[in-house]
Write a structure and sequence with these properties.
12 helices; nine-stranded mixed beta sheet; 2 domains; binds pyridoxal-5'-phosphate; alpha/beta; TIM Barrel; Lyase, Ornithine Decarboxylase, Chain A, domain 1; eight-stranded parallel β-barrel
Length: about 425
């Protein structure tokens, strides 16, 4: 079952459950995730790297639902976090602190202290000031903090500019040209165990060549640091593998990419970390929405649905494409070219533009595909819209893993 979603007798299923049955019980809009699909992607990484010491640290920011985190923690995954809130979630979900890496350019003292107290595996540090702060806070606790320095390898990820992170002019990491001097200064900080190097060059990479180029650069750097007497034990290559949004996208297969990575690191006497987010959960989720109205203005045809940019901002933010397919397929329906838009008061509120799709009518249900990553995670309450329910399907069973927000939730804390 590819990615957990398929038609049976023209009815769209998530694993063994008809999506329309879920929508009837939870209402719409609602996110639905396939547990089987998530686990199969995780295992593809894990198995391809079986004979290399490794950590698969799922990037929590892609989809932070506790149900998803529990599923991955249960399978043995580690986690890549970028905030204290994400650390809190991972601990709630039963994640193992010794498999957590903490990334991000702006860690606060409180977040660093929280992570030190949990004895996480490693901090991926992004500046000398951060190294000094971690050193001071670890010294106060009389412990050693394991750190890696995030290197900016200056390779072009060739993806959307907002999610490209590995060029010299980006805010991330330490410039590859300066990093050895930074290691030399950091090795004098007594409360740091300077054991790793890390990078992450961007997201939604459909071509793996830039990642492999970064791998070579990082392995060469690890070798140079070892030659200087800095005992590098682990290398973290970040996340970034792209997924299929359009049917014609040639997305890299996790298995093939991880196998290529294994070739590079075999017999290097290094522990390997990867931080995949999107490639684990992206294709494992859909956003189910109901058609409210059809309308025509000027030359344009609109399908107005009950999901909006507040539920899924990717089309508005990154001009990204999500396939939109009917829950009930019928050749008799025919197709229409239309904009699929939500109720939010912005012209940027669209899920698709000038798209040929099933000629659906008010009341019909649609699935917005490949919405498992950076979907709910980027949802907001804009226009005072309660955030949607989230559902996890496992075989023929399903459960709500996050209830739809109520109006009372909207004003909590005000
Ligand atoms: C966002 C991010 C990831 C995950 O990226 P994906 O493209 O979702 O795989 C991994 N590591 C870091 C440091 C990140 O910021």
């Amino acid at each position: 079952m590819e990615n957990g979603f398929s038609y049976v007798d023209n009815t769209l299923y998530a694993e063994g459950v008809a999506l329309a049955d879920i929508a009837a019980r939870t209402g719409t809009p609602c996110y639905v995730y396939s547990a089987g699909s998530i686990l199969s992607k995780y295992r593809a990484y894990h198995e391809a790297l079986a004979d290399v010491p490794h950590r698969i640290c799922y990037a929590v920011k892609a989809n932070f639902n506790l149900g998803v985190l529990r599923l991955l923690a249960g399978a043995g995954a580690g986690f890549d976090i970028v905030s204290g809130g994400e650390l809190y979630r991972v601990l709630k979900a039963g994640g193992d602190p010794s498999k957590i890496v903490f990334s991000g350019v702006g860690k606060t003292a409180a977040e660093i202290e929280f992570a030190l107290d949990q004895r996480i595996f490693s901090f991926n540090c992004e500046s000398e000031a951060e190294l000094a702060l971690i050193d001071a806070l670890a010294a106060r606790r009389a412990i050693k903090a394991r750190v890696a320095i995030r290197v900016n390898p200056d390779v072009d990820a060739a993806t959307h500019p907002y999610i490209s992170t590995g060029l010299r002019n980006h805010k991330f990491g330490v410039d590859i040209a300066e990093v050895e001097r930074v290691y030399e200064r950091a090795r004098r900080l007594p409360a740091l165990a300077l054991e790793g190097v890390s990078c992450h060059i961007g997201s939604q990479l459909l071509d793996t060549d830039p990642i492999i180029e970064a791998v070579d650069i990082m392995l060469a750097l690890a070798g140079r640091l070892r030659a200087r007497g800095i005992p590098i034990r682990h290398v973290d290559f970040g996340g970034g593998l792209g997924i299929r949004y359009k049917p014609e996208d040639e997305a890299p297969e996790v298995k093939r990419f991880a196998a290529a990575l294994r070739e590079k690191v075999l017999d290097k006497d290094l522990e390997v970390t990867v931080e995949p987010g999107r490639s684990i959960v992206g294709e494992a989720g859909v956003l189910v929405t109901r058609v409210l109205y059809r309308k025509r203005t000027g030359r344009k045809e609109f399908i107005v649905v009950d999901a909006s940019m507040s539920d899924l901002i990717r089309p508005a933010l990154y001009q990204s494409h999500h396939e939109i397919i009917p829950l009930r397929r019928s050749p008799a329906l025919g197709t229409v070219v239309a904009d699929v838009v939500g109720p939010v008061c912005e012209s940027g509120d669209f899920l698709a533009r000038d798209r040929e799709l099933a000629n659906v009518l008010p009341g019909d249900l649609l699935a917005v595909c490949s919405a498992g990553a950076y979907g709910f995670a980027l949802a907001s309450n804009y226009n005072s819209r309660p955030r949607p329910a989230e559902v996890l399907v496992e075989g023929t069973a399903w459960r709500v893993v996050r209830a739809r927000e109520s109006y009372a939730d909207l004003v909590r804390g005000e």
